[in-house]
């Protein structure tokens, strides 16, 4: 599902002094009921070990998924079954699905697509809409 940024603001945790960004989105419902194919690209910078991920061309922000569930405050990762891949799977599913469905599906998504990737390299995944819908168990997404 596409989302439109409605509001963005920063706040400071009084206990730690750490700054956070909170974003509010409005869901834009597609004209069709079938899920489109999903393209996910992950980039890895070996110099600073930074990871950047795009879903259908949209940059994923870890803060958005951290506000829903805190697996990895260090951000996204892939190539093993731990907290970084869990945070990435949640972010991807939240980007594509309503929150309720994303929370139900993201661990299955992680196990199927993220655990076996090469950790110290980038990746590119193209998932058929039908395959994604079957994985997350969302009947309304199937054509």
Radius of gyration: 15 Å
Which outline best applies? globular
SSE arrangement, N to C: EEEEEHHHEH
Count up the domains.
Answer: 1
Question: Can you list the strand order of the major beta sheet?
Answer: 5-4-3-6
Overall pLDDT, averaged? 84
Characterization of the model:
The chain is an alpha+beta fold and 143 residues long. It has one domain. It has helices at 62-66, 83-96, 99-114, 129-136, and strands at residues 2-12, 19-28, 38-45, 50-55, 58-59, 123-127. The protein has a four-stranded antiparallel beta sheet with strand order 5-4-3-6. The chain has a two-stranded antiparallel ribbon with strand order 1-2. α2 (83-96) packs across α3. The two termini are 15 Å apart. The relative contact order is 0.18. The mean pLDDT is 84.
Give me a quick take on this structure:
With 143 residues, the chain is of the alpha+beta class.
Comma- or semicolon-separated keywords:
143 residues, alpha+beta, 4 helices, globular
């Amino acid at each position: 599902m596409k989302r439109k940024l409605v509001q963005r603001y920063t706040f400071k945790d009084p206990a730690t002094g750490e700054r956070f960004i909170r974003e509010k989105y409005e869901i834009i419902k597609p004209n069709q009921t079938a899920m489109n194919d999903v393209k996910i690209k992950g980039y890895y910078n070996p110099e600073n070990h930074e990871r950047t991920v795009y879903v259908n061309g949209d940059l994923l922000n870890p803060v958005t998924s951290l506000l829903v569930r805190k697996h990895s405050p260090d951000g996204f990762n892939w190539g093993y079954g731990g907290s970084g891949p869990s945070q990435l799977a949640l972010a991807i599913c939240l980007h594509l699905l309503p929150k309720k469905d994303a929370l139900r599906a993201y661990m299955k998504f992680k196990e199927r697509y993220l655990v076996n990737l090469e950790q110290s390299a980038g990746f590119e995944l193209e998932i058929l809409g039908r395959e994604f819908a079957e994985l997350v168990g969302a009947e309304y997404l199937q054509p």
